[in-house]
Amino acid sequence: MMEDLQEIIVKYSFPIRDINTSVTISEVESYANLKLPEDYIFYLENYFGIDQFIGVEFIKLWSLEEIIEANKSYNIVEELTRTIGIGTNGSGEFIGIEIDQFDNVKIILSPFIDLNSKYNTEIGTSFTDFLVRLDNKIEWFS
């Protein structure tokens, strides 16, 4: 699975994090009251956010420095149980990680406007799966 993630990171030239940040993974986990998935932690620790097309879809993934602020400004963590926003599709919807009570991970797409889990669309079963689906040109944002 990590090989798939590495492959996509290289293919799409994710910007490498070469400086330490004032925000830590544990601060983000504590804020969201969630244990973030390993593949997503790897991405956060080693890369900056991206703002580009992957496959046929445009995505913006937030950097470690932006996550808490972005979630606060949209009230994502406060409104949605066991969910944290990790980016956006640039069209009024956020990309998030939802973790159920059994620690199963789902990557979701949901509108910013009406924060209600009934509007969540599953777009991946892990951070890596989400990127692999994008790379395979699966369209779900439209």
UniProtKB/TrEMBL annotation:
It comes from the Bacteria. It comes from Flavobacterium pectinovorum. InterPro entries: Knr4/Smi1-like_dom (IPR018958), Knr4/Smi1-like_sf (IPR037883). Residues 21-131 form the Knr4/Smi1-like domain. This is SMI1/KNR4 family protein.
